[in-house]
């Protein structure tokens, strides 16, 4: 946090949850006045970490970092290839994109 404050300057507000260690750290840095703590104030911050946490939870099964790195590199490519964000397009367009992606994948594999 010290490095971020030095690089980017002091922000107008620092949103955290009610954990006391945040208050102690901000007091030590002299930024306690900028701290905002509210019941739902931190939801946006916490929800921005959800995709990362989902990947992190899936990766806990791996015992060696090398295996994890191999899986993650392959998984990222496959996921990007087939993830067409269904909620943004209609059914027909989604089916066409999915079929095209599957045909391309089968051409690459065989």
Q: Can you put this structure into words, describing what you see?
A:
It is a single chain. The chain is 64% helix and 5% strand. The protein is mainly alpha-helical. The protein has a two-stranded parallel ribbon with strand order 1-2. The radius of gyration is 21 Å and the shape is elongated.
**Widest β-sheet, arrangement of strands:** 1-2
Q: Which structural class is indicated by helix and strand composition?
A: mainly alpha
Low-confidence stretches: none
How many strands appear in the DSSP assignment? 2
**Biggest sheet overview:** 2 strands, parallel
- Name the shape in a single word: elongated
Amino- and carboxy-terminal Cα gap: 50 Å
Query: N-to-C SSE series?
Result: HEHEHHHH
Helical residue percent band: 55-70%
Secondary-structure topology with pairs:
Blueprint: H1 2-8, E1 14-16, H2 20-29, E2 35-37, H3 43-48, H4 50-59, H5 65-82, H6 91-109
Parallel strand pairs: 1-2
Labels describing this entry:
single chain; 110 residues; mainly alpha; two-stranded parallel ribbon; 6 helices
Short description:
With 110 residues, the protein is mainly alpha-helical. 64% of the residues lie in helices and 5% in strands.
């Amino acid at each position: 946090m010290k490095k971020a404050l030095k690089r980017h300057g002091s922000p107008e507000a620092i949103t955290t949850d009610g954990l006391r260690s945040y208050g102690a750290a901000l007091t030590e840095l002299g930024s306690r006045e900028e701290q905002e703590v509210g019941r739902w104030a931190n939801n946006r911050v916490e929800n921005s970490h959800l995709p990362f946490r989902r990947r992190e939870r899936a990766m806990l099964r791996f015992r060696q970092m090398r295996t994890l790195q191999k899986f993650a590199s392959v998984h990222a490519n496959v996921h990007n290839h087939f993830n067409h964000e269904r909620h943004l397009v209609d059914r027909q367009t989604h089916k066409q994109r999915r079929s095209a992606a599957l045909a391309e994948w089968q051409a690459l594999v065989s």
